[in-house]
């Protein structure tokens, strides 16, 4: 299965300036720079909460969005007592849902 567009981690580094992409989060109101990442985090939580519980859990663990670092398919499978293949299927299904234009537009407000 091919994705139509590549998926990037917000913690990956920009090729030229070598800063994390999350550092480029938009400042919508021109102030309160400390508030913007918190708003993005809340929006991301909203989007992830719109998924089925296991899909949300897999995405949070796979990409370290639970604050405990990213985990392998095997680690997540062990946590949930399911096969690695089931974890992979949950991940693929969740990523397809996250590409839905409504979800993308909702998050786009917080990213430059």
Automatic annotation (TrEMBL):
Family listed: Belongs to the sigma-70 factor family.
Lineage: Eukaryota, Viridiplantae, Streptophyta, Embryophyta, Tracheophyta
The protein's name: RNA polymerase sigma-70 region 4 domain-containing protein
TM annotation in the entry: none
PANTHER family documented for this protein: RNA POLYMERASE SIGMA FACTOR RPO (PTHR30603), RNA POLYMERASE SIGMA FACTOR SIGE, CHLOROPLASTIC_MITOCHONDRIAL (PTHR30603:SF4)
Residues covered by the RNA polymerase sigma-70 region domain: 47-100
Any Gene Ontology biological process: DNA-templated transcription initiation
Gene Ontology MF annotations: DNA-binding transcription factor activity
